[in-house]
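Please complete every field before forwarding. Incomplete forms are returned to the sender.

SECTION A: IDENTIFIERS
Entry label: holo-284
Bound molecule: zinc ion
Molecule representation: SMILES string

SECTION B: INPUTS
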Amino acid sequence: MACTLYILGSGQDGGLPQFGSRMAPDMAARVDPLAVRLGPSICVLEGDGRCFLIDVSPDIKEQESRLLTLPAYAARKPGNPFDAALLTHAHMGHYVGLAHFGREAANTRGLPVFCTDNMAAFLSGNAPWDQLVSLGNIELRPAGPAQPISPWPGLNVRTMPVPHRGEYTDTVGVSLNEDVLYVPDIDDWRKWPAAREEIGRHSVCILDGTFFSRDELPGRDLKEISHPFIEDTIEFFAKEVKSRRIILTHFNHSNPVCDPASPQARRVIDAGFELAQEMTAVSL
Ligand SMILES: [Zn+2]
Ligand SMILES: [Zn+2]
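SECTION C: PREDICTED COMPLEX
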């Protein structure tokens, strides 16, 4: 059966426009829906409507509206809006949309939510997330590196730890059917010993493209910035991109590649990489 991955949000945690910003790209995105980039999330949608969500962004409402334009998703029977979800880590762009799963909104019943033990302890030990667990809206299921996940037969999911600032929880990357790799947040490719091995195992890699270059962040201490720069990433994976698709995503609102007509976007494409757009589809 046809199975497709959709990039539901190609923005960094705060999306584009970013709340509180009056930078030119944010002002433009406030009046141009095509320039909007939602919070970071992807899903796997089967032809029969089964849907597996990876990360629950603050923009989950808009992401559901977009999914409802797809016949397979629109044909789902009433009930939980997803069959299962997986969370990569507890930074705001990746899980706070869970609030909409509670009794004030979707009031899901027993939705399996896969995450690491560390993330499960965070959710079940802190309000308001603990209420989702105690009221049975979600059921936490383990998703550690040695715990393969199968939301349904034929969809096999594996997580892997990646280095990323861990104030609240650890962070994982996600492999789907050993074919597509999703790593939206990482501090530095060089701090991840398995980087080349993991990228080498997958035919499509959807990777952290938060910032384009150092120039984008005048006056910021580089030590505070826990992401690789795209201009470094396209050099670091110059060999790997020759034999697979590498799609960059998780763009900060300041990133010039958010404008596909920018010279920086052209440079990325010329280097053989792709730039995620909203609802980019990848066959699985
Ligand atoms: Zn993020
Ligand atoms: Zn993060």
